[in-house]
Amino acid sequence: MQVGDLVKFHSDFFTTTAYANPGIIIKVHAQRVPAARSTREVYTVMWADQTVTNEHRSYLKPLTSS
Q1: What are the residues whose beta carbons fall under 8 Å from the beta carbon of 6, sequence distance 6 or more?
Q2: Residue 44, strand partner residues
Q3: Distance (Å, rounded) from C-alpha 23 to C-alpha 37?
């Protein structure tokens, strides 16, 4: 996934969400994971209600790709 992609919040763990689907990825950045001595991608998403959150790939389902 990359900047400009349209996504939907998706989780098997959380049954409800306060996010207004869909959202658009506005930034992709790396987050350090000290215990694993690695990094992982984090996505900044602007949702339909203009709320902005940072999400991990596992919670996002792509609807379109740029």
Answers
A1: 22, 23, 24, 62, 63, 64
A2: 27, 54
A3: 30
Give residue-wise pLDDT tens across range 4-16.
999 999 887 766 6
Tell me if the pTM is above 0.85: no
Which candidate, 10, 14, 8, places its Cα nearest to that of 45? Answer: 8
Cα–Cα distance, 66 to 49 (Å, whole number): 22
Closest by Cα among 51, 46, 32, 40 to 3: 46
Report whether 24 contacts 55 (CB < 8 A): no
Determine the Cα–Cα distance for residues 4 and 49; give it in Å rounded to an integer: 17
